[in-house]
Every structure is written in C-alpha cells, then in structure tokens.
Specification:
2 copies of one chain form a homodimer.
Chain A: H1 7-20, E1 26-30, H2 32-41, E2 50-54, H3 65-71, H4 76-85, E3 91-94, H5 98-109, E4 119-125, E5 130-134, H6 144-162, E6 168-172, H7 183-193, E7 198-203, E8 215-217, H8 220-245, H9 249-269, E9 277-280, E10 285-288, H10 295-310, H11 313-325
Parallel strand pairs in A: 1-2, 3-10, 5-8, 6-7, 6-8
Antiparallel strand pairs in A: 4-5, 4-9, 9-10
Helix pairs in contact in A: 1-2, 1-10, 3-5, 4-5, 6-7, 6-11
Chain lengths: 333, 333
C-alpha cells in the first residue's frame, strides 16, 4: 500500500514480476477492496500465484516510526513483516516509510545473532558494473564494531548475488592515507583488517563510482548524504542536458539525432535498474523500494527479493557472523 | 610551486590573470631559478605587476602537515603565507598539499577571534546558479558551535561575493524533518535558528545541486564525501557518454552533431569554473586550488582571491562574528 503511488504501481509491478519469474508467488498485503480492484483491473483475478491478504491500516510516509510501530498493528507493513516471521512468505517488499519499515522489521524479525543493527544496502552503477553500498541511513551514529558488521554483511551480499567469491571491501573515508579519518573509522579499519574479508582499505567518495571495490562501507549519515548527493547531481546533469538541447532549432535537431545514444546512457545509469535496497542483518528478507518507484522500478525490487531468497542471504550472513565471531566453531562449513 | 604541475601551470595562469585584471599584482613564491625560467618562457620578464620571491623548499603533496609545518620553514607555501601575515600581499593562492596549507595558515595567520577552526568552502553549480558549501574536509569532528561558525562564515562569503543581502543557509542532514539527524546536527540547528541568519533549516544531499539554499553547512567529513561523490558520479556520466557515442559509425556521427551542445553542457558544469576553495576563518585570505588544476582553473582561483580582497572577506567575517557573539557591541556597523 506504501510509496507515493500505492497499489496503482505495486499491482502492475507484481504482474510484471510474475510474468518474468515463473516460480515466483506473491501475496499482496493491504486494503482488500482496493487491492482486489487493482487485481481485476490488471486481469490478475485468475492468477494462482497471487493472493490478497487483508490489512486494515496504512503507515503514512511521514509518520513517526515509533508511532507506526506502537499504534498500527494491522498496517499493511506490519502484517507483511508478520508473514515473513510466520514463515508464510520468504520476503517482504515495501515502498513505504523507511524508518517505520526498519523499526517494524527489527521489532518483529529481530537481528541475526552477532548483528547489533540492520543496515540498508543498495547497489549503484560503476564504470565497471556495480557496487554495493551500506549503510544508507538506518544508523546515524555507528561504532567501529557496527562498521565491521556492515562489512561482513555487505561481503556476504555481494558474494551471494554477484557470485563473486572474494568481493573487495572499501571503507569510505576522506583520504586514502591511513592517517586521515576519525577515530571510529581508523578503529573499524583495524577490525576489518583482522578478518578474512578481501579488505581494500580506505576509499574516497569519488571511488564509489569507479568500481574500485565491490562493497562500500560507511555509517548511515555519510552513506545517505553520499547517495542523495549523487541523485542531486544526476538530476542537475539531466536538467542542463535538456535545457541545452532545447536551446534552438539546431540543438533540437541534434537532440533528435543523439536521442538513441542519450537513451542508452540514461538506461545504463537508470536508478530504476538499481531500485530495491536490502535491509541486511534481519532474520528474514526485507526489501525497501524507493517511494517514487514506477512499475519497472518496483518489479526490480521484487527481483532482488527473489534473488536473495534463492541465495538464502540471511542464513549466509548468520553463518559468516558465526564463523567470524566464534572461530572455534565449525569453520569448514 | 605546488600542485601536480607546479610553475608550468601557475606561471601561465598568473599571466592570464594579469591580462584579465588590470589592477592585480602578483608575487610568485618558490624556487627562483625555476620561476624565472617560466617567467621568461611566457615573456613576462618586463611585467611590472609581477615579481618573484625566492623560497628554497617545497612541501610535497603527500607530506604530513605536521612535518611540513615544523621542518619546512622556507617552503614556498610557508613563505607565501608569511607574506600575507606581513601585509606584503593580500592573499595566498596554492595548489599544494591541503592539510599542510590549512595547518600552516592556521599557525601563521591564526583564526579570527570567535572562530575555533577555519573551514574550507567552495562554490558548486546548481540548477539556478551556484551555492557555497563548507566545510569540505578541514574539520572531521565538529561540534554544534563549529557548525554555527561555518554558517556565519558561509553567509558572509555569499553576501560578499554574490552581493546577496540575505543568503539562505541550509544544514546538511539525512532528513528534512526535525526529528532526524544526530545530536550535534540538532543542536547546531537550534543555535543557527537563534541568529539573524536567513536559516532555511535542514536540507538533504540532493538539495545541494537544486539551488535550494545559497550556503550548505556540514562537517568536513560529510562535506568531503559529498564533494568527492559528486566528482565520481560526474566522471562516471562522462565515461558512459563517451563510450556510448563511440559505439559505432552512427553514434560517432551523432556525437559530431551533438558536440556543440555537449560542450555547452560540459562548460556549464565545468569544475574548472569553480576551482578555488576559500580557507575561511583566518586573519587573511588563503585560496586552495585543486592540485590537478590547469591554467584556466588556476587563474579562476586567482580571480576568487581578488574578489575576496575587494570585498575584505576576513574583516567582514570578524565583524559578523563580533556582532553575533557580542550583541551589546556596535551592531549598526
């Protein structure tokens, strides 16, 4: 029900995902009447792999996470997460209020033993492909141990979804020399160095998009500012491109000729391809879609969920954390 | 002498600036022989508004600021800053080691009374023009009071160089709602609200490039990551554009036709136009050029210095700080 567009986007996105993935089964959680209307509108009423599960309340996009958690026990968000907890579904996907999704997921599913706080992780385009970045805003103040946990989780994610046996990990800092950065960053670097992770050391903001590393680790404040900065700059470039191509008859003609190329550029960098951030560290899979997601974007978030189900990402994170923190245990698994 | 290219860039940039600004006088500080050679090469030997001042040492780009400060008392950087201190010149411009420039400037010039730490401030392109952002890396850990000081300094800079009587100030955060952000940010917001500044509240990373505010305030860690992220994304867009336009004969033709437009876009967003970051809060004007600056970029840094001289930026900051912290004093000045 969440996001800027609600079931008008999520239901056709579900249809698209069902068509693309023949093994996929989906449960639409929310106001029954509204969902059924959309299901009919998209001729999905006979679809055996889709069902509607009623939830009477909706968490507003600007609602306080604490209030959503306490007062809205029958919200679509809460009910969907409950279904994950009960094992009725394997993942929850939401375009709703990020803070409420994080708080509710943490409350209902709890974190994996050894993980203090879940982190938000998304993939971003790079010169060579893509990179995974976390945390993107769930954790404002982080300790060195939290950053270490993010590194472990990011590594498992990249290993699982990219089938990359040794993903490289970079710690976001303001200088690549070891002398720079604050105490938390320096301490985190020492902790990550002691693991068996493929640690590449400090990286700077401009390294995110070069593909220098497969996983970028930062606290949620810095990660969020970095992500939003990139969104802002991309939008500025887009605005300037459009305005320059509209300048006169010649430039409009040039635009027409350059359009196929510009569309390919747009496609390569299209944030919709990357929509779907993972809430890592929970006993279950929860994927956050951008609130403004369109049909393509939201169906991409469903795709990410289905990959993480296939790869049993939470179980793998649990195993990696256990291996790391209890080296006397079974390390050969 | 500093930067990636040394006098091969700074001397022709000086020539360009002298041609553009008839009132400008420049002193080239560094290895006399090398500078004189460049002066001759650029036919500047008769130029009355230019002189060479010898300094026997050079601070390396990767040298520790503490060592540069202690051991290299006759470096071109130190000598140039001494000339500011002695009143022989009105500003120092350097493409050298940022940490050493900041440490040496602070040691020699001292900060303006009421300012604890200098901050690095640069202007950035926006949809509507440009914005000023500080701090960009001088101060990793900042208190609320430091952020307040940055807001005051940024406001004075925007007021002076843009002739904007009431520049709007935004505090970079991870959410525009007052509930988000860490304690330092929340406290800083309360402090800035109590001033007479035109405070617009919290902004997010994507607001930097929309032109929502005239001054963006953040701590140096977040500011540096944000700036570098933008550089990285711009470089990715550039790489993808180039590669798509080189794909085949048709796209190469399209590139040829679109080239004038793409060049205009590049020009509008050209970071060289924005080269020259101000070290604000010092008793004197110090401008940091990007190390990789070319002739155009470095001459832009000289231009920024000359504007700040014209507008007496340090004196204005001093007055504003005094007005703010001593309201019983002369507030009508």
């Amino acid at each position: 029900m969440g996001g800027d567009h609600g079931p008008q986007v999520t239901v056709p996105a579900a249809k698209k995902a069902l068509e693309a993935y023949p093994d996929l089964e989906l449960v639409l959680v929310g106001l029954e009447d509204e969902l059924n209307r959309q299901v009919q509108q998209h001729s999905l009423q006979g679809e055996k792999r889709l069902r509607v599960h009623h939830a009477s309340e909706i968490v507003a996009m600007d609602e306080s996470p604490a209030i959503a958690l306490k007062k809205k026990k029958d919200s679509s968000m809460r009910v969907a997460i409950n279904l994950v907890k009960q094992g009725e579904v394997d993942a929850c996907i939401s375009a709703g209020n990020t803070g409420a999704l994080m708080a509710t997921s943490k409350f209902v599913l709890k974190t994996i033993p050894g993980i203090d706080r879940p982190a938000i992780c998304t993939s971003l385009p790079t010169v060579t492909g893509h990179t995974h970045m976390l945390d993107l805003g769930a954790n404002i103040d982080c300790s060195a141990e939290h950053l270490l946990q993010f590194a472990l989780m990011g590594s498992v994610l990249a290993e699982s979804v990219d089938e990359n046996p040794q993903p490289s990990i970079g710690l976001l800092n303001i200088g690549s020399e070891a002398i720079k950065g604050n105490e938390v960053i320096k301490q985190a670097s020492k902790l990550i160095e002691q693991t068996s992770l493929n640690y590449a050391g400090f990286i700077e903001g401009d390294d995110i998009y070069t593909g220098k590393v497969d996983v970028v680790v930062s606290d949620g404040f810095v990660g969020n500012v970095s992500l939003k900065t990139a969104e802002g700059l991309a939008s500025l470039v887009n605005t300037v491109l459009k305005s320059e191509f509209k300048r006169n008859l010649f430039t409009k003609l040039a635009a027409l000729i350059a359009l196929p190329v510009l569309n390919r550029v747009r496609h390569t960098l299209d944030p919709r391809q990357y929509n779907g951030a993972s809430l890592l560290g929970l006993n279950g899979i929860v994927i956050k879609s951008h609130g403004s997601a369109d049909i393509d974007s939201f169906s991409n978030a469903i795709k990410i969920a289905s990959i993480e189900i296939d790869k049993s990402v939470p179980a793998r994170i649990g195993k990696e954390i256990q291996r790391h923190f209890q080296p006397q245990g079974d390390t050969t698994a």
